[in-house]
Amino acid sequence: MDKNILLSEQIKKRTQFLRSKNDNEDISQLSGYLMQICYGKEAVLTNFLDPGARVDLRELAQSDFYIQEFGGYDKAEKCRVIISNDWEYKDVENFQFSLIKITYNHKFASITHSQILGTLLGSGLSPASLGDIITDGKGNWQFFISDIMLDFVCREITRIGKVAVRLDRIPLKQILNIEDDVQNVKLVVNSLRIDAILAALTRTSRNIINNQIEKENIKLNWHKINNSNIIVTVNDVLSVRHFGRIEISNITTTRKGKYRLEANLWLSKKKRMY
């Protein structure tokens, strides 16, 4: 049997297995990217993918494809990915996205991340065409956009909220010094269950956390969960709607058999879940 046919069958099996593990609605699209390579395309450029989708893509691809990703800067949350059969280094231009600067009079007005995101999506822009929205914490904002949507957003978006704005494409080298408002936290917990850890981190009860899980407001490694019994491990990323994001950096055991956690915490502006 032809090698590509065999590979396509393997991709189908991996897709079915991955669907049985998580609820990522993009699994079919991720599988479709790989199928294009199986059927003869030399390279495929994806839309912007979040970290969870990129993990799923790598699980589907395994060692059968070469994958390169870029989101505009180190540690970008959303990246575009180039998938290919053969290794070839890809320049920044190959990822086909641009950096946009938002110009407005921030001496007399202010805008927020949620306002920028809401305006962009409200204009009809797909989330898949939008990369990270970044700030230096001093009122300056930029975002990344797929080149195909560049002219549209620069032409159509003249206001964010009630604030008049101008959008301009700028070179990637003019990226802001990104504000990182991470907090380093340490705590001791009796259990590594996700509900126990989140209850301790958010200073709420496990019942409230379980209620948020039922409402699908909590994600583990960018995937929705429906089970409070999941055991958290080092490098896991927990996201709680309206509260923030937590990255577990270290776990050790105390003399009394409890667990000492170190975590990086990025708080939402709302800082509350209910």
TrEMBL record:
UniProt GO molecular function: RNA binding
Protein's recorded name: Cell division protein
InterPro entries, per database record: Nucleotide-bd_a/b_plait_sf, RqcP2_RBD, S4_RNA-bd
Organism classification: Bacteria, Bacillati, Bacillota, Bacilli, Lactobacillales
Gene Ontology annotations of biological process type: cell division
Segments forming domain RNA-binding S4: 192-252
SMART domains hit by this protein: S4 (SM00363)
One Pfam family hit: YlmH_RBD
UniProt KW Membrane keyword: no
Gene3D superfamilies: 3.30.1370.160, 3.30.70.330
Organism from which the protein derives: Lactobacillus jensenii
The keyword Protease is assigned to this record: no
